[in-house]
TrEMBL record:
InterPro entries: Thioredoxin-like_sf, Thioredoxin_domain. Pfam families: Thioredoxin. Residues 1-25 form the signal peptide. CDD domains: TRX_family (cd02947). PROSITE patterns: THIOREDOXIN_2 (PS51352). SUPFAM superfamilies: Thioredoxin-like (SSF52833). Keywords: Isomerase, Signal. GO terms for biological process: cell redox homeostasis. This is Thiol-disulfide isomerase or thioredoxin. Transmembrane segments: none annotated.
Length: 130
């Protein structure tokens, strides 16, 4: 039986969750070659993160990206994540070691950074894409 108390508690929980995730926050999609190529070829701004969960530099980059998720200047950028361990052939095809960010804009690569862990390093790539 659904009571008024349960409905109110559920509504309150939804409000809390909605306030945690910033409006317009970007999120990473899993890398799918056809989807990414279509986005790049359309001229869209695209950022690809080659990531391994055990990689300290990757996690540092992911933390910085997470802090920037609410930046409205990045709302139009499409973000994709390559699983370095599970999608090794894609990482190889991109010529990217783990802990790499690649920015595309206007159908071409405009920035690339590997191993950088400062906010400045990450921002340079994001700014090139936006």
């Amino acid at each position: 039986m659904v009571s008024r108390r349960n409905i109110l508690a559920f509504s309150a929980a939804l409000l809390v969750v909605a306030s945690i995730v910033p409006a317009g926050a970007f999120s990473f999609q899993s890398y799918d070659k056809a989807v990414v190529e279509k986005a790049i070829n359309s001229g869209a701004s695209v950022v690809v993160h080659v990531y391994a969960p055990w990689c300290l530099q990757c996690r540092a980059q992911a933390s910085i990206l997470s802090e920037l998720a609410g930046d409205k200047h990045l709302d139009h950028v499409k973000f994709f994540k390559v699983d370095y361990d599970g999608q090794k052939s894609i990482a190889d095809a991109l010529g990217a070691p783990r802990s790499t960010l690649i920015a595309y804009k206007g159908g071409k690569e405009v920035a690339r950074m590997s191993w950088g862990t400062s906010q400045e390093d990450v921002m340079k790539v994001l700014q090139a894409a936006s």
